[in-house]
Amino acid sequence: MFLDEFHTLTGEQVRISAEQASRFAKRVAGDYNPIHNPDARRFCVPGDLLFALVLARFGLSQQMSFRFLSMVGDGTPLYFQELDDGRVRVCDEGGKCYLEVERSGDTTRDEAVVEAFTRCYVAFSGKNFPHYLKPLMEQKGVMFNPRRPLVIYDSMGFSLERLDGRAPGLELARSSLEVTGKRGDVLLEFRIASDGEQIGTGSKKLVVSGLCDYDPAAMDDIVDEFYRLKAAHEAET
Q: pLDDT tier at 42 (50, 70, 90 boundaries)?
């Protein structure tokens, strides 16, 4: 399974090291958010890795919604639990819940279909910054703190008309940013297509904290650093 190198399974317990999480963020998602660097002071496991592990374990359903309730740290012991009503919860040993998933409709466990959908969604999701966020923040005249950029994955969901898409693709349909004080709520709506035919829709919500006035020079520096990190990683692989 393509996710094997990004987590460690011992019985029913899943652990994700900071190195595994960072490797997934960069190699699979193309996500260079510094919060996923192993040495980050506020390190957290990418929500997209938890998303991918849920799909690999429980399959891809026609309707799914994911709520990210807390950030997962380095090596936190996790348990992926399926409840009687079909919901899935990702919790630690003390019962703290990090992710809650609701699902309905038909489900496929076809590994090729699940992996293809996972990869296309994660590749889309990894483009949060600068591809989607920078234009929104520039338009609203705000940006995150350049010294402590914090973008948190709040939730996502999708609805599929069918589950046989072996070469799916996602594209941004609409995006918006609502600013309340120093907080910004970002909504990214997307279309899901396969073989040129739309087979579903979905949306993703992000929270941007510590907003300040937009500074073009500071933003340019952040974008330059993003592409520097991307080039450095690609040179190593």
A: confident
